[in-house]
Amino acid sequence: MTQIAFVTYPGVTALDLVGPYEVLRHLPDADIRFVWRETGPIATDSNVLLLGATHTFGETPNPDIVVVPGGTPTVAVQARDQELLEWLRASISHCGSSHVSPARIVPRQYSSPSSTTRSRRSTRAARSRPHRR
């Protein structure tokens, strides 16, 4: 079994969690776990959609894969959560450095101002053009 832990924290962006889940759940022998301090419903960043934490940190001490999805602005708050940080450190340390492959994903709202500006200009320009058939 490949144990995959998705950190399901209050304020998580649902798409950042559900997108990777939809891909990873198809791995052979995947044991999917949505983890948090306690099991139960977790409100996403919209405060409308609820996701469920299926396992606690204690019930998932050594996952093979850990997914920490984004969330705005709560990701900054959760990044300082000591219980979460301790669990992440312990989860990663059991793998050994040869198995840890860090990834950096920068959400659009944190991308460079120039790329955002170009994107906005392109959108405005596209809207101002007459529609051609």
Sequence-ordered SSE layout with sheet pairings:
Elements: E1 2-7, H1 14-24, E2 30-36, E3 40-43, E4 50-53, E5 55-56, E6 65-67, H2 74-78, H3 82-93, H4 113-128
Parallel strand pairs: 1-2, 1-6, 2-5
Antiparallel strand pairs: 3-4
Query: How much strand?
Result: 15-25%
Task: Please give the radius of gyration in angstroms.
Answer: 18 Å
Biggest pleated-sheet summary: 4 strands, parallel
* Assembly context of the chains: single chain
Overall structural class, as computed from helix and strand content, comes to alpha/beta
**What is the terminal separation in angstroms?**
54 Å
Number of strands: 6
Query: Helical content, roughly?
Result: 25-40%
CATH level 1 name: Alpha Beta
Q: How many distinct helices?
A: 4
Low-confidence stretches: 97-126
Question: What general outline do the C-alpha atoms trace?
Answer: globular
Average pLDDT metric: 77
Series of H and E elements: EHEEEEEHHH
Examine the coordinates and then state which fold CATH places here, giving the name of the CATH topology.
Rossmann fold
Q: Compute the number of structural domains.
A: 1
Strand order of the largest sheet: 5-2-1-6
CATH architectural designation = 3-Layer(aba) Sandwich
Within CATH, the superfamily carries the name Class I glutamine amidotransferase (GATase) domain
